[in-house]
Batch of 2 targets.
Target 1
Amino acid sequence: MSHAALPGRDPRGLPGYRWLANGQSTLAGPLLDLYRRLDRLFLSWAEEWGATEYLFPTFLPARELACVDYLRSFPHLATFPVTLDPDDENLLAFTRGDAPDAEGRVRLTATTPVVDVLTPAACYHFYATFRGEHLDKPRYVTTRATCFRRETHYEPLARQWSFSMREIVCLGTSDEVKAFLEDGRRRVARYVEEIGLGVAWEMATDPFFRPQQSPKHLAQRLDPVKTEMVFGGSLAIGSVNFHRNYFGEAFEIRREGRDAFSGCLAFGVERWLRAFLACFGPEPAGWPALPPGQV
Amino acid sequence: MTETELREALREWIVSTSGRIGREALRDDTPILEQRILTSLHVLELVLFLEQVTGLPIDVQRLRPGVFRDVDTICRSFAARPPS
């Protein structure tokens, strides 16, 4: 199957860049510096709301995601950590196999039960962390997570099996969250206009499994909750998402006596890199001023 | 069915289907999907209900964003409409 290339600059051949066939990127030198500076920019926006920063682990318990029906809605995207059954005979049988074979495939012997999922979206960690809490004021939080989404094909800095997502999240009343999302959209729009990064704002839906049969997809289409920042006509470099009180209800997070509402600003850091390279070129001297990167 | 009859039937259906809002709290401009008074699982049921009470088929693929926003919008869209 062939796929049209996504917009932006293909980074292969640039100093410090290495593309791996399994849908992952290695960054060093100026590109790594740009990656850090972009993330520092997003973090500076998070600080405007006084957002507390979190660093989460790579795995999420599958039962936490079950609360929001993730594995039924997005089974095609999920990636699972798998380990061998520690029984000595089982491990011995594994070592006697030919893993990996000539095609690089590892034939597993008995495995332990899979109970975790590799993080599919950064903000899920927050709802699991705040489960059962009653919020006495809106809560603003941020994190950057390595996210994993299995796809049918990959493209450097545009569609990757693992990629970095920075999110700024608000939990509160419906009005508090909507005000946050409107402020956030204005903040980002002002920035991209200032630097001349052409972005269109487009309504979108989440990539549900079998969307034509999905009631959730139909509901999102009829009552849009996701607006994407689209570069070059088809590369979504970020999104503004209103979750209504879906996560508040699922994780029993309350605000003013009701299920909390939530929303997030999400930034795909690698995709921002790709858009920056297309718009401003590969030379650091041509890039817009950005905050110093974090080490 | 007149718009008034549809409005009344719709209010009753939302309250009984949702279980999340009382008859007196449901206003005609209450955003029923945004407030998750009806969830995504209710949307197809709503389509079937509207087909039943209006006697006209609904092409789900042609429904526009916002058409199920609130009682007012639904009534304007589906009362005495021509067949789709």
Target 2
Amino acid sequence: MRAQIAVYAVLAILALAAPFLGLYPVFLMKLLCFAMFACAFNLLLGYTKMLSFGHAAYFGSSAYVTGWLVTARGWGTIEAILAGVALATLLGLVIGAIAVRRQGIYFAMITLALSQLVFFICLQAQFTGGENGLQGISRGSIFGIIALGHDRTMYYFVLAVFVAVYLLIRRIVHSPFGQVLKAIRANEPRAISLGYKVDRYKLLAFVLSASLAGLAGSLKALVLGFVTLSDVSQGTSGEVILMTLLGGSGTFLGPVVGANVVVALQEYLSDVVGAWVSVIIGAIFVICVMTFRRGFVGEIQGRFARGAGKL
Amino acid sequence: MLKPGTTTLFALLSLCACARAAAATDQIVIGDIDDLSGVYADVIGQGGIEAVNMAIADFGGTVLGKKIVLLSVDHQNKPDIGASKFREWADQNGLNMLIGGSNTGVSIAMSKVAAVKKVPFIAIGAAGASLTGADCTAYTVHYSYDTTALGNGTAGAIVKQGGKSWFFITADYAFGTQLQEAAARVVLANGGKVLGAVRAPLGTTDYSSFLLQAQASGAQVLGLANAGTDFSNSLKGANEFGLTKTMTPAALLAFISDIHSLTLQTAHGLYLTTAWYWDLNDETRAFAKRYFAKMHKEPSMNQAAYYSATMQYLSAVKAVRSTDADLVMAHLKQAKINDMFTKNGYVRADGWMVHTMYVMQVKTPAESKYPWDYYKVIKVMSGEEADGPQSDPACTLAKK
Amino acid sequence: MTTVFGVPLPAILGQLMLGLVNGSFYALLSLGLAVIFGLMGVVNFAHGAFYMLGAFAAYVALQFLGVNYWCALILAPLAVGLLGIVVERLFLRHLYQLDPLYGLLLTFGIALIIEGIMRGLFGASGKSYPVPPLLQGGFNLGFMVLPIYRAWVVLASLAVCGITWFLIERTRLGATLRAATENARLVQAFGINVPLLVMSTYGAGVALAALAGVLAAPVVQVSPLMGSSLVIVVFAVVVIGGMGSILGAVVSGLVLGLIEGLTKVVYPEASNIVVFVIMAVVLIWRPTGLFGKE
């Protein structure tokens, strides 16, 4: 318990002080958005053992909706974010309803194919700007009171949302609902025999994961100021899987660490190795699957498993 | 216990970010952000970097007593990487000028950064006409070609030669549709007809169904409003299905590297428009020879544009004796560009560099006398004919 | 002139013909995937990458070794199949007792590595591979000219599909394979070297993908990106057919090729997504796919 609090305290201090330490706020915000995305994804993979291979669909479509509402319709920031999340939730409901009926590989394949559909719709639709994407999305302000144009202000806003999402996920996992999910993950037939409407629970988890992924996407659109097809692409779906796997699925901080590592790698490797980035990412995938299955945080936890509590 | 693991990781990452060098003010920093590994890598890519280096060397390596330095990075066709690298270089590396882009989406994102950071951005390779239209900025210069010039060139030349009825195979995204529209406008304006058009999804590898539809339409000209692999696959298919015997193929955007990989066997007879060709005159040949020695292939119009743009920027800096973006841009917009790339070029108010365009036809294998001898000039279009002397009305700068 | 959906009949016939060509191609690709999944339970995400390697093997063989198309048809699948065996031996083998999702993720990573390396070596733009002299030219069918090469692709694909189906469903070897999937221990107890069998199966499935690649090389530009867009469509085809069923994969491949062909005439912009829409519909109506076994 002590160790847990200490870790969080250090992280909190680092996070709050970061802009003043000379770290690049836009990069940090990008990290936070992807960390949020990975945490949302982990809700599904880590705690419900459902591998969604098309999670970028929610991330990206929410980003598009938010971006479009802000640029083309002049909506306020918060309203646009909420609208984006609403779409992601709806999408999650529709895709989830179809996918959840199946398990394991089939589930993954269905989510993959349906997210490809979303990709193609985004490609064709007029409002997304197709290949060029949506550009010049302004950050606006929080209900007209706090302007978000300045990087530092935006950083604290994103940080606040991130912390809220993180705490929400913890709450969900530790709630009675979370317990049922755990039971389903451990032994689905038994859960069914106990009378739980397993499909409904799985669907709810799926929808929650999709909404939060959408929130991450909307924020990213505002932080960077643009949304493009890569945000709904297969590549992004693959990246979030890697982040979660690398950091450790089934832990809370795992996806955060994983996201930081992957985003930082891409940012700094692109200078050095260009095309070979995908080879390196592929290699990391392979290594993770073969030997490093619990991911960074999972491994660390495993070593110090003595009642220190889950992080 | 759990502290060391995660917090060290965080700390390490933070250090990485901090370790970035502070701005170096005693250098002139030119940045090149391009697609070095994806679909545009062959028409620009490393060749572009080489061309910029050649320009820097030819200029003497220094300007205003400061050393010229080139930074380059692969944007991997992702606007976030392009835009954030641009920002980072501007904030932390003292970037004075950005060249590159290749991809319209990334270029638009970067031009917005250029406006905010007040760093001149010379966009090359992106075809979107909106870069000097709705998306124009006071710091963007658009070199080489755009969809308007391409449409005017190829479509104009063919229609005037008698190719009145057209069928388009268009890549189904903004670039493709803009190309088709630009070309169709010219066809109709010259008394021709568009008998049909079909939109093929981007990345289609098998064009057989679309080609069949083209054939069924009975049009004289097959207009290919696509580029890169899409273009190569559609032309290859057209050959396979015997279309090139009955229809005239017109490429709305093709590069010498495409022709080289398709071979003259497949590509002969094709019409295309280009801003520059290595074999036009002694100057171009001299440049190409040096380039070939390093890269082992002839330069495309884009790589030549990189050389020219860099030289022009450095000359402007020398002339105004400063790297101040506003002064440099003002100079660029009133200078006459007379170099290896073009003889009577100038930058319009909206940022488009007006210059001569050439409509070419690809030679037959029999007509080609030496390696890379691929084109014969059909028509020379002045800059005004190609893209109009008037700035794009959609650009707010044009109101000046 | 008779019209269907407002499109003249010759055009429809032409598109159906083309659909058949593409369909047989899809069938061949799905076959490899179905074999690997049906007999090993592994979702081979690297299938597209191996298809691409097959095409490149043919290209490189021609450019640098002077090996012609016909030899490449045999040698390329063998070479790539061998690579597949190495992948199985080094990586996949260790994952069988785990959740099948790990196999999927591993092959996903392998696909990234293979594609990344090829991109680094060859760049992203396509290379041209010529149609072999014997197969150049076309048949004039009246409503269209059918290139001889495309007719060859149909014949070759259907032949290979037929032979594979026969091998698996009607021979002793096939029976052993199928038994090993159901109960490896028991089969091993009979003295059959199951690991060797499994390894060869993966190799064979990969070889089928490479063969498809060689067949594709004269038609499309050989590029490192050629497999990644195709693999998801092929997966959809296999899912529609029913993931364990070889017959299902072949039939769905053919039917989907035809449907895609029709879509290209009637509503071309949707031709990319029609497969996924059908997949969604099939899964709602019949979760195990059309010929699925569960």
